[in-house]
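Human: I'm a chemist; would you kindly supply sequence and structure tokens for a protein?

Assistant:
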Amino acid sequence: MTFRHAAGAWLVTVLAAAQPPAQPTQSWNDAYRAGLALFEQRDYGRARAALLDALVDLQDRPEVDWRLPATLHVLGVCEQALGRYTEARQHLEAALSRWPATGENAGQRATTLESLGNLLADTGDWDSAEQRFRSAIALKERAYGADSLETASALSRVAETFISRGQLLGAKPLLERALDIQRLSLPAADADLLATRIMLAHTLRGLGHLDAARRYAADAEAVGRQSRLYPEILCILGDVYRREGNSTRAVPLLRQAIALAALRSSEQELPAAVISLAYVDLTEGRLLSATKGFQGGIIMIQRLWGAGGPEVASAQIGLAAAMLELRRVEEASALLDSAQPFIESVFPDDHVFQATGLVLRAALAAARGDRDRTAEGVRSAWAAIEREAPGAAQAGLWAICARSMRPYRPDLAKIAEKRSRKRSREIAVEKF
């Protein structure tokens, strides 16, 4: 999912829309509005230049003027987008010191706290980031009420940052609370309500709660067919079906998601759907098609979010599994090494992803003929699989284990295949 820029644009838009009456100078107003427009167009360099012009125009204004913290805030967000983290923090902290903590500007102070939290999270200072997020939510509650839509929006945005850091357990209660608030006040097809639903479905999917994830994604699909987020909704619903082993339901949804995303004027590509389809090909033994899909997904992710984006890890893991089945051991090893930092730091709560990495590491040891490491790896991987609640996730993990071990240790592959079939039969019995 790509909620991050939308959240950043919202934070900027709030500062433009909710100001007290004032008579700004025309030169400041022109520069500030130009900066906002350029930010929303993702032209961050020119946005920064316009906002610096706006800041110069305010140098002789009193510090109580709301325009100064508003300009500093947007400038800080632009600096962050340009990777200038030191300058971004300076501007955001300066804005924070100038917003009053009470009264009509309290909401803007909370917005700046959120932006500062996002910045700190991006620089790896997660503890400080979480503190800012909690403070922002508390300030929104005091300013607007604990059950207000403003509080719900803050909860959803903070949860999105938790998700981007792999903190799924932290995101889940925030999204559940936001959804409870939004359901009471918003129509079912409202964009904010849909975004919260699909983020919750995404979170539950990562935690392995596939039944609940499917329910939330299906609810969003039923009412969100006219939404700009409909491709993402289809992608998540299709991927949940894929993880449940229901490729018949998954494939049409994933293909429709890719086709609809291609019709949009921006953010056309949907690499998550491409990667999910590649996993279907991998499961059904179409290794060359799976390899092409994973490679295409990696290229899309790098084009959209850069070479260092953690989203690439899912495709790298899938491609490594294909390489092991194709006996291309060193390529599989390189892919696992590239994905490992993200598995450890960005996906700590995604137990299925963690277990998949362990399964492939055990298969890699088997491919190299290292019996001691194979035995140790199998113990760790199989224990991780058994820790998953019996169901589709566990059946899928045993199937991956069987396929990746088959070229190197058919005895272990046979055991894993039996366990996968047993879990699949149990699932089929539960459905009837």
Observations:
- Confidence is low (pLDDT under 50) at residues 1-11, 14-24.
- The chain is about 75% helix and 0% strand.
- The CA atoms of residues 11 and 111 lie 6 Å apart.
- The radius of gyration is 24 Å.
